[in-house]
Design a protein that fits this description.
single chain, mainly alpha, two-stranded antiparallel sheet, 15 helices, 2 strands, about 75% helix, binds geranylgeranyl diphosphate
């Protein structure tokens, strides 16, 4: 990670520390903190802040929304790893939340993180009511019209052959919706006009889909040690992935094409700094 991003990730971590400073009942807060501070890349907060700063917006005002997206992302990972979902015992190189705290406490930690996200965002909107659109973009993306819908479709597709449009639906909702909402929220926070907001939404869609294709690629090309989570997890769960449906080469090509499109749109936006462009050009969205 480059210096600027490390600095941003540290600022996000410091803000998350404040948000997660309560401790009763200790086991619940320990479980929440365990997963939030397990070493994630903070990609979604960085996207939110980069979109906002590129538009000349204020990073401090954007920080609660950036943190809220990370809380939602972490809840989704905790629940996704549960025995009744993907049943994974390793995440971010560490035992998953339910392995350490048990399934019941892991479910509650996820529930608590999700609700805390809305508490943080609504408190921020009470101070700056003009930012309600950022909360609304994130809420829509996280729920039954976005990530939860995508996760449900993904679970229902296990042991089935999935066609191209269904696979794209799953990717667009399970993964890309939340990533797109980071760019949309950044657009609201940075007071983008309608044209720029539409651009940011499309950039988010392209980056989100590229991110999931790269995740599918990593699942079959990297080891458990390299990824910090079990390799071949999709095969274990009999899931259709971009690689199983289209093959390795097409997956790489499509991932690169989606990222290229996003980079082109970012360049057209002529932002005030290069943070978003650097993120889009990073290994998160580009296969080797
Ligand atoms: C449980 C409602 C619900 C949704 C789960 C996000 C998700 C939906 C499932 C996670 C499983 C998965 C493989 C998703 C694909 C991409 C993804 C979200 C990878 C993890 O994100 P990173 O790489 O993780 O940003 P870190 O650890 O860096 O935060």
């Amino acid at each position: 990670m480059e210096t600027v991003s490390v600095d941003i990730a540290e600022r996000v971590n410091a803000a998350l520390e404040q948000i997660l400073s309560d401790n009763y009942p200790p086991r619940l807060w320990d479980a929440m903190r365990y997963s939030v501070f397990a070493g994630g890349k903070r990609l979604r907060p960085r996207l939110t802040l980069a979109a906002c700063s590129g538009l000349g917006g204020d990073m401090e005002t954007a920080m609660p929304f950036a943190c809220a997206v990370e809380l939602i992302h972490t809840y989704s990972l905790i629940h996704d790893d549960l025995p009744d979902m993907d049943d994974d015992d390793l995440r971010r190189g560490k035992p998953t939340c339910h392995i350490i705290y048990g399934s019941a406490m892991a479910i509650l930690a996820g529930d608590a993180l999700l609700n805390l996200a809305y508490e943080v965002m609504s408190d921020a909107c009470a101070v700056h009511p003009g930012n309600i659109g950022a909360m609304s973009a994130i809420a829509r993306a996280a729920g039954a019209r976005g990530m939860v819908a995508g996760q449900a479709a993904d679970m229902l597709s296990e042991n089935k052959t999935v066609d191209e449009s269904e696979l794209i639906y799953i990717h667009a909702n399970k993964t890309a919706a939340l990533i797109r909402s980071c760019l949309e929220a950044g657009g609201v926070l940075g007071r983008a006009d309608e044209r720029r907001r539409a651009y940011l939404s499309e950039i988010g869609e392209n980056l989100g889909r590229a991110f999931q294709i790269r995740d599918d690629l990593l699942d079959v090309t990297r080891s458990t040690e390299e990824m910090g989570k079990p390799a071949m997890s999709d095969i274990k769960n009999n899931k259709s992935t971009y690689v199983s449906v289209f093959g390795l080469e097409r997956a790489k090509e499509d991932c690169r094409a989606l990222t290229r499109r996003a980079v082109g749109l970012i360049e057209e936006l002529q932002l005030k700094d290069s943070a978003l462009l650097r993120l889009a050009s990073s290994s998160c969205f580009n296969p080797r």
